[in-house]
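not sure who needs this but someone in the group chat was asking about Helix-hairpin-helix domain-containing protein from Herbaspirillum robiniae so here u go. i didnt clean anything up, its just raw.
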Amino acid sequence: MQAHFSEAERALLRGIPGVGEGLVRRLEHLGIATLAELAGSDAVALTARLALANCSHCWETSPKARRLAEEVTALARRHAAATSADSAP
């Protein structure tokens, strides 16, 4: 069974302009189903993985795709930092 982002994390991702349900599902298909998992991703490598999963070389060379990968990983890192700051003593 494939894991899925929580509704709250899905809403955060979908709040990024250009990120739709399709991209969220592609991330899940790659085995990334939490912002914590996404925070550990490199944007360049993520773009390449998404291109391979889509069988689309244009995704790998697309400035828009690279920007989206950078934005979703940056969001995930900010979320991880905020979460760890909230749980610090």
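also The helical segments are 7-14, 21-29, 35-39, 43-54, 57-61, 63-87. if thats useful
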